[in-house]
């Protein structure tokens, strides 16, 4: 059992010792004098143990959810916000005063707020690498920005193509390339998505949701060809602050 005195928060995920959230919120609690608040990493190997977190953590007020549980956590929740239901993925959970669990998605908000200042008139279509929970928030944000998109996965799916289909024409048609996969995350920092990087130009944006390392191989390779690059740090800060507001409703 974890002893949290007044208000408990935490992150649910797998292999999350690198996590941004714990360091961010711990610093926030200290700097802004939120006494009695604590943030804990709940590193679980299977989503089936999620219920144990809820049962064994006193004064739990809110949770963040990361890879690989943004979709599989949904059946454990009592209710979803309208946007989380539409997106089909949850990265923020609020424990209500009645002890109910309500799921939200703040990924889409953070991504949209981070991408929007980078957009120019020629950035018309996006390629989303990956089809996991993080990709769903990205897709929802692109819908709100009226930017058409196509998913990329190992095998072609509905509204998607496989990696081996990406060529020069693809890069001509898609000016925003977004990595929503964990490929390239520390400690596996030499890894990168299997796409033809030679076709990046200064007309492209390369956006990696990964923030550790600060510049992934995906970003480095795109940058070498003149692309504008950005990592997921600002997105994480925006979504974290949105989560804080949700927890304190």
TrEMBL record:
Any idea where the Shikimate dehydrogenase substrate binding N-terminal domain is? 11-93
Pfam families with a match to the protein in the record: Shikimate_dh_N
Its UniProt pathway annotation is: Metabolic intermediate biosynthesis; chorismate biosynthesis; chorismate from D-erythrose 4-phosphate and phosphoenolpyruvate: step 4/7
Keywords of this protein's UniProt record, alphabetized?
Amino-acid biosynthesis, Aromatic amino acid biosynthesis, Oxidoreductase
Q: Does the keyword ATP-binding apply?
A: no
Superkingdom, natural source: Bacteria
Protein name (Swiss-Prot/TrEMBL):
Shikimate dehydrogenase
Higher taxonomy: Bacteria, Pseudomonadati, Bacteroidota, Flavobacteriia, Flavobacteriales
């Amino acid at each position: 059992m974890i002893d949290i005195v007044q208000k408990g928060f935490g992150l649910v995920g797998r292999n999350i010792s690198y996590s941004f959230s714990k360091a961010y919120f711990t610093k926030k609690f200290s700097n802004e004098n939120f006494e009695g608040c604590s943030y804990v990493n709940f590193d679980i190997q299977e989503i089936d143990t999620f219920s144990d977190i809820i049962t064994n953590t006193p004064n739990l007020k809110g949770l963040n959810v990361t890879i690989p549980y943004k979709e599989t956590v949904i059946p454990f929740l009592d209710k979803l916000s309208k946007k989380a239901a539409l997106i089909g993925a949850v990265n923020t959970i609020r424990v209500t005063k009645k002890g109910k669990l309500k799921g939200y998605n703040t990924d889409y908000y953070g991504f949209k707020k981070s991408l929007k200042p980078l957009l120019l008139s020629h950035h018309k279509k996006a390629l989303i690498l990956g089809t996991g929970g993080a990709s769903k928030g990205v897709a929802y944000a692109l819908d709100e920005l009226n930017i058409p998109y196509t998913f990329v996965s190992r095998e072609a799916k509905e509204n998607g193509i496989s990696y081996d289909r990406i060529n020069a024409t693809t890069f001509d048609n898609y000016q925003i390339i977004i990595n929503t996969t964990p490929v390239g995350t520390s400690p596996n920092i030499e890894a990168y998505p299997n796409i033809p990087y030679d076709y990046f130009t200064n007309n492209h944006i390369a956006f990696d949701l990964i923030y550790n390392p600060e510049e992934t191989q995906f970003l480095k390779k795109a940058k070498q060809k003149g692309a504008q690059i950005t990592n997921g740090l600002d997105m994480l800060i925006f979504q974290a602050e949105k989560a804080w507001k949700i927890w304190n409703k």
